[in-house]
Design a protein that fits this description.
α1 runs parallel beside α2. By secondary structure, the protein is mainly alpha-helical.
Length: 91
C-alpha cells in the first residue's frame, strides 16, 4: 500500500510498535543496567534492512524501521561507550 493510502491509525500503530516500543524498553531497562554497574550489559536493538532501503508499497514499515536505525546510531545511545554492529543474513 502506498504511504499516502495507509490509514493514520495503522501508521501510528506501526510506529508505536517498531519505534516507540524500542525506546520504551530502553528507557525502562537502562536504569536497571546502570544501577547494577554491569560491565558486560548491553542493549540490543533489532531493526531491518527495510530501515535502510525502502521497498515499494512498504513505506509505513520502512519509515518506522528507519527511525529505529537512527535510534541505534552511536551518537544517540544513552551510554558513554556505544558499540553498534550491523549483522544480517546474506544469501
Amino acid at each position: 500500500m502506498a504511504i499516502l493510502d495507509v490509514p493514520e491509525e495503522k501508521l501510528l500503530n506501526i510506529i508505536h510498535i517498531n519505534t516507540l516500543g524500542m525506546w520504551r524498553m530502553t528507557k525502562c531497562f537502562f536504569p536497571l543496567l546502570e544501577k547494577k554497574a554491569v560491565d558486560k550489559a548491553c542493549i540490543v536493538n533489532v531493526t531491518s534492512v527495510a530501515g535502510l532501503v525502502a521497498a515499494p508499497f512498504n513505506g509505513a514499515y520502512s519509515m518506522s524501521k528507519f527511525a529505529a536505525e537512527v535510534r541505534s546510531l552511536p551518537n544517540t545511545h544513552y551510554t558513554t561507550q556505544p558499540n553498534t554492529t550491523f549483522v544480517g543474513i546474506y544469501g
